Amino acid sequence: MQQQEKLIFDGRHTPQNISSYSFSFGAVFGVCLAIGYYSETFPQLGIFFSALALFHELEYMMTALFKPDIVSLDAFLLNNGNQYNIAHAAGITEFLIELYCFPTLKYIRFIRYIGFIIMVIGQLVRSLAMWYAKSNFSHKIAYHKRQDHVLVTTGIYAFMRHPSYFGFYWWAVGTQILLCNPICLSGFLYVLHRFFKDRIEEEEPLLIEFFGKDYIEYKKKTPTYIPLID
Ligand SMILES: C[S@@+](CC[C@H](N)C(=O)[O-])C[C@H]1O[C@@H](n2cnc3c(N)ncnc32)[C@H](O)[C@@H]1O
């Protein structure tokens, strides 16, 4: 009985649960996309919400695919902390205020397209990273080497270090360009840079501890392509 309760509270997921959670997120994605498609004047908000739903959906799906034994609701990455929620709330607020005060700012088609393309590239790279890293990927930094943890240097990891951070960074920057939000774009650039710089500085010494010379050699050959992080 205790064991069963533990499993429930751990949030371990059955295939049925996985498909129903994914279906619900898929439905949110579809509805947002439809709103974006049919709202001719300002489709950005619909596209933004579908991108948000798709992003979190894929985080969960990839974890369910490669780590079915530990997948839980946390894998949706919805519990990213206050900074993340405040950042997106600020983005939506800025969009709505400027839509009311300076609607022409939101009409700049060229900027919207650039934002959309950056966002799609970010999402693609993030998902490719999770795909190639498979069970070596974890949402939280690993402080101890698991026996089955191997250094991934193939696929998207052959071209860049930390592709999942690259993807997250550019996806988030892309959302603010898509929404034509100059204030939040500056804020996102600053906060994302600090966040990923600190994260990489914490992660890399551990990777050197786990994989020694192999990681040092790998690091020499692969840039991050995140601005101001070599
Ligand atoms: C959130 S994942 C991020 C992975 C990587 N930093 C990226 O952006 O694609 C964090 C975990 O991935 C592991 N990791 C990072 N790079 C790795 C690599 N090239 N091969 C294997 N594991 C890696 C770290 O040990 C850490 O626990």
TrEMBL record:
It catalyses: [protein]-C-terminal S-[(2E,6E)-farnesyl]-L-cysteine + S-adenosyl-L-methionine = [protein]-C-terminal S-[(2E,6E)-farnesyl]-L-cysteine methyl ester + S-adenosyl-L-homocysteine. Pfam families: ICMT (PF04140). One of its GO terms (molecular function) is protein C-terminal S-isoprenylcysteine carboxyl O-methyltransferase activity. It is a multi-pass membrane protein. One of its GO terms (biological process) is methylation. Its main location: endoplasmic reticulum. It is an enzyme of class 2 (transferase). GO terms for cellular component: endoplasmic reticulum membrane. It is found in: Endoplasmic reticulum membrane; Membrane. InterPro entries: ICMT_MeTrfase (IPR007269), PPMT_MeTrfase (IPR025770). Keywords: Endoplasmic reticulum, Membrane, Methyltransferase, S-adenosyl-L-methionine, Transferase, Transmembrane, Transmembrane helix. Its EC number is 2.1.1.100. The keyword Transmembrane helix applies. It comes from the Eukaryota. The chain crosses the membrane at residues 20-38, 86-103, 110-133, 168-192. Belongs to the class VI-like SAM-binding methyltransferase superfamily. Isoprenylcysteine carboxyl methyltransferase family. This is Protein-S-isoprenylcysteine O-methyltransferase. It comes from Rhizophagus clarus.
